[in-house]
Amino acid sequence: MVGPVGFEPTSSHAQGANLRPCSTTASWDYGPPMPGSNVGDVRPQHEGRVVSTLIKLKETVEGISVESTTNYIEGFNLRYWSGDSLLSRVEVVDVTVDPSRYEVYLYRCLSPIPFRRYRRRREYLKAAIPKGLHKKVLLLEGRAVGQIEYAPYEASGYPIVGEDLVVMNCIWVLKRAKGHGFGKLLIKEMTEGEEDASSFATIGLEGHWSPWLKREHMELLGFKPIDSITVTHRTKHPGEVFRVYLMWLKKKRTAEPPRWDVRKLLEGVTFCLAHPLYHPETLKDRNLLQEHDIKRGETRPSNAY
Question: pLDDT tens for residues 238-293?
């Protein structure tokens, strides 16, 4: 049974109800209250346009108290407590479908910086959206708590290439929303939405001061490291060494590993100013990063390539 996450409240249903298979025009269909439940007919039944697909249930929940249904959702810790479904409060919206309506999400994302349009991001969106860029925002009770951005490698923000490859620019779930499997939900949005993709790639950071795109987080989401470089940052935390990994998530058995252009990667990225490897326009040097020789404890000069 598949339940979409986009919906518009239209009518009422009982809380703490059984989950039944539903059509693709309704997000969830709840049956009558479970025997012995003390919840009333107070929550809305959600029907309407399918915005995105969520997850599959292992089986229909029948004859089990509401408090015991947590583990019946495959792969995610989405709870049903006291008849209140977290699923019913979650919506995933593709903000690239209507850029003018969702412009604030396209430019500002979830970072704590003021919203403003800026040239580099505008140019990237203009070039990448027609080529298949998607940015999806996870809303919990109408508030943005997570996001994922990805595109075919031709429209990616990273110098990563591969056959039938989709590259994830970023994924982010706010700390206050952790523990509910929202990261895996967003990965599922990407992998199931890109039906023709053979595999997916991104980067992972280790030893970097930023909490974003950490290697261990990417591994928890299913990616595996297949290559890495050791670098230092030219303007921040000088002399502090960290590693950048090429991360890979294989979808099809015949998929070939992706490749990356290390020389280009050392320049940093320009598609998002909140990115840990963003190359600021005030930095006139070509490279943001310098490769570091671990054995010698030396940093390679920028002109080494």
Answer: 889 999 999 999 999 999 999 999 999 999 999 999 999 999 999 999 999 999 87
Nearest to 166, CA basis, from 199, 204, 131, 129: 199
Separation of first and last alpha carbons in the chain = 53
CA–CA gap between residue 258 and residue 238 (Å, rounded): 30
Task: Tell me if 96 sits within 8 A of 135, measured CB to CB.
Answer: yes
Q: 176 phi and psi, to 5 degrees?
A: -70, -15
Q: What's this model's pTM, rounded to 2 decimal places?
A: 0.70
Long-range contacts of the stretch 147-150 (C-beta < 8 A, 24+): 147/105, 147/109, 147/110, 147/171, 147/172, 147/186, 148/172, 148/186, 148/187, 148/189, 148/190, 150/190, 150/194, 150/200
Within 8 A by CB and 6+ apart from 114, the residues are 108
pLDDT digits (tens, 9 = 90+) for 123-182: 999 999 999 999 999 999 889 999 999 999 999 999 999 999 999 999 999 998 988 899
- The torsion angle over the Cα atoms of residues 236, 137, 175 and 289, rounded to 10 degrees, is -20
What are the structural domains, with CATH classification, of the chain?
2-88 (no CATH), 95-304 (3.40.630.30)
